[in-house]
Design goal:
By secondary structure, this protein is mainly β. It has strands spanning 26-36, 39-51, 57-66, 72-84, 87-93, 98-109, 112-124, 131-141, 144-153, 159-168.
């Protein structure tokens, strides 16, 4: 019999190495706008969930839908890890055949958190589009996350691709 491994439903204290990331825990929902030279601009609805299992990482799950017709656009799954008191790592898998490792800094402020990351490795399956760099910025203030994503893909230099504002759902 196969059993699923799920995040615990009862409260688990975050691992001490990631305790300063605790404000991210939970589900966040909002909307954003995407653009890139090779596609038509679009609006989207998004949900991100940060969870934990008591280990020194946060789980990360992201889903987007087209704001106009509700069709699924993108998803990402992975982990957010601390590499030191002011260093962060984001390890993601995309269903488009891309894996992403981003590393950067975390800045703790009285009003929240700021994460700045750039890709150190992009893996691609043989059918994935050519993505050569990704960069992400997250800013958490109170119950709001603002983020942006930069991308270099299909012959384009790294530039703005996505921006969204999400609010705590719980």
């Amino acid at each position: 019999m196969l059993t699923a491994v799920l995040e615990p439903q009862s409260p688990v204290t975050p691992h001490p190495d990631i305790a300063h990331l605790a404000p991210l825990l939970g589900t966040w929902r909002g909307s954003g706008h995407g653009e890139y030279p090779t596609i038509e601009s679009f609006d989207y609805d998004e949900e991100i969930h940060f969870g934990h299992v008591g280990r020194p990482f946060l789980t990360y799950r992201q889903r987007t839908r087209h704001a106009g017709d509700g069709r699924s656009l993108h998803a990402e799954t992975g982990y957010l890890r601390c590499a030191g008191p002011d260093r962060i790592e984001l390890i993601l898998a995309h269903p488009t055949g891309i894996t992403e490792i981003c590393e950067g800094t975390i800045e703790l402020a009285e009003d929240g958190l700021r994460l700045e990351m750039g890709s150190t490795h992009i893996g691609r399956s043989s059918t994935a589009k050519l993505v050569t760099a990704l960069g992400r910025s997250f800013r958490l203030v109170g119950d709001t996350i603002d983020y942006s994503l930069r991308m270099a893909a299909v012959g384009q230099l790294e530039q703005h691709h996505l921006a969204a504002t999400l609010r705590r759902a719980e």
